[in-house]
Amino acid sequence: MKKIMVLTVAMLLTGTAWAGDGSLKQIMQQLGKDYSSLNHAILLKDFAGAAHFAHAIADHDKPSMGQRLKIMGELGTEMSAFKKADGRVHELAIKIEEAARAKDMPLLIQSQSQMLTACMACHTSYRSRIVNLLE
Ligand code: HEC
Which residues sit with their C-beta closer than 6 Å to ligand 1? Predict the structure, then answer.
């Protein structure tokens, strides 16, 4: 328990880049929409649209401090793996945005095809645990 407290405080101090106002569920619903819109833009060879929605995914909102604390309490030392999964989506989204701006369709398709795997990696490990927690 003490360990978790120390970890939580350490994350509060260092993790300022990961706090906002919305609920995680709302953020995820928006991510889902942006993900679909991104796929659709690629299908239409709409590079500007693809860059726009990839940017929105990369730049998604952060959950509120209250939700963040609950998640940290539940995940404890697994929090770093959870953040890493989020980071993977972020990196891919930036890669997709760059490929779209460069109008590089092969790279765009290749990086987009990795996105669902990145989203699902976190869902598989954490979604059910956190859904119950934040209800
Ligand atoms: C770091 C972990 C993580 C990553 C990465 C992640 N998700 Fe989620 N996602 C969650 C969690 C946790 C929930 C459950 C939230 C809740 O219901 O409170 C969720 C729920 C969802 C939901 C369901 C929302 C609803 O209405 O119940 C959608 C849609 C979704 N995510 C889309 C995505 C997409 C698209 C990506 C990738 C671009 C993604 N997620 C990446 C953790 C993640």
Answer: 24-25, 28-29, 31-32, 35, 57, 82, 85-86, 89, 115, 119, 122-123, 126-127, 130-131, 134
